[in-house]
Predict the structure of Ketoreductase domain-containing protein.
Amino acid sequence: MADYNPPLARKVAVVTGASRGLGAAIALELARRGATTVLVYASPRSDAPIQKLADQIRALPHKPDVHACRTDLSSVHGAKALVSDLSSWRGSDLKIDILVNNAGVERVRPLSEISIEDYETVYNLNVRGPILLTQAVLPHLNANGRIINIGSVGGRAGFKDLSLYCSSKAALEGLTRSWAAELGGNGTTVNCVNPGPVPSEMLGNIPQEIVDMQKATTPIENRLGTAEEIANIVAAIAGSDGSWITGQVISASGGWAMY
Ligand code: NAP
């Protein structure tokens, strides 16, 4: 059909942590649905995977535009550096429609061993990162914007040795609800998607007994999720179909967590 427009055509989506895992799948799915995507990542080792993903996106049948930006979102200046890079790329009239705060980090530490550095590593990226980036994006966010925070089922679970990570994801749920209340006036929605375990570099560092327990008690097929399944849930609420859902936390875990 020559005049068919994909659902996210003319939308600009910023996806953090797009170099691998969930973020890469989310960026690809948003692009597949027509969005121009911005791939945000942090480490030089991810230059090559990001270029590969950008090539994959450009090769889609509708040839969506894509832009990559390396910036440290755990730093105080990372978000502003990203927006300034995007302004150079799009011109002074930078407009963004979808922000996916996906970049995250975990530290496996018993309470007695948590250091200030561990706290800063986890909280500066998982909590301060979305605050500063959402703040920086806000002046450029179109009406009917979509802010989608990637939390974790850990935000409502008591996983041993993961208190920094679990509490940071609980904080993200709190931010989601308040931002939904603040930003809804022009149709902007703010939601949190909480994945259960999905194979990724991060999951490789989670204690195996936690992952085994989750797998065994997951109602859908006693299995792990896939990055594509999480991406489909994010993409489903990123477009106009998501206009009447805000301030919600969606458990994307095959029913492991039922809210
Ligand atoms: P991952 O494979 O470890 O990927 C993390 C991503 O975050 C990478 O793209 C990384 O970029 C980026 N990143 C790390 N530090 C950064 C920084 N300082 N500034 C900007 N970007 C940074 O993680 P994942 O498993 O895909 O997880 C993605 C999100 O889903 C996280 O928020 C995680 O908490 C959540 N989640 C994951 C699971 C799971 O089972 N996988 C379950 C629940 C929730 P570089 O490549 O440049 O380092």
Observations:
- Residues 16-23, 41-43, 46, 72-74, 102-105, 125, 150, 152, 195, 197-198, 200-203 surround NAP (CB under 6 Å).
